[in-house]
Amino acid sequence: MNLVILAAGKNTRLDTGIPKSLVTLNGETLMSRHIRVFKKHGVKKFCIISGYGSEKLQEALPKLKKTHDADITILHNDRFDLENGFSVFRAKEWVEENEMGDFFLTMGDHIFDPEFVGEFVKKSDALENVLQLAVDMPGESNSHIDIDDVTKVQVDENGFIDSIGKTIEKYNRYDTGLFRLKSEVFDVFQKSFDQKEYTISESVSKLMAGRQAKSVLVEGYTWNDVDNPDDLQSTIKLMDQDRL
């Protein structure tokens, strides 16, 4: 398996002068943690999509490769002013060159309990749909999540995604920012771009119509999105509690 990590954002809410994926927590950057954790669960190749602060990621690359003895590629998205779907599409050439039928996708500023990743790898193994999204059940275990910022998901009794977005009123799951995608997903992204739609959620909505977007429930493990100073502090607290 192989992993695409999106790290192109402009850091408007947590601007430390470096990409959020290079923020250090407990002596390890979020990017280094991703590579360590996903490699543990069988990922062989990594593709980092850079944008804002790309030179910092390039500077970090030799150390990442040496520390993890990993196959890591950085591709630059020069349109990082657009939404995250455009960054996903930047990985198309890497996926095609490596003849990947499917791949994992996550965000450089997210953080997962390693066992969360392991559960998703196992549960998403039989890939029957173009898109599988790791979701969590809203509850006390993830009460630290920023409810105003998290992407919400409504799924049916079979796990198919019925709606997704940050502002939807009816939802029963949280989007955790971890996907498994078939390579055909790039055709869907291109259709979205043709309509000036650049978010991942907008492409998920197109897949929903053909019952090709399914959720994978992973609960009981901690995860967080380190998007702003409050998220950073909640993540540090979770680490102090040995939950990450």
TrEMBL record:
The keyword Protein biosynthesis does not apply. GO terms for molecular function: kinase activity; nucleotidyltransferase activity. Coiled coil: none annotated. Signal peptide: none annotated. The keyword Lipid metabolism does not apply. InterPro entries: GlmU-like (IPR050065), MobA-like_NTP_Trfase (IPR025877), Nucleotide-diphossugar_trans (IPR029044). Keywords: Kinase, Nucleotidyltransferase, Transferase. Residues 4-124 form the MobA-like NTP transferase domain. This is Choline kinase. It comes from Ekhidna lutea.
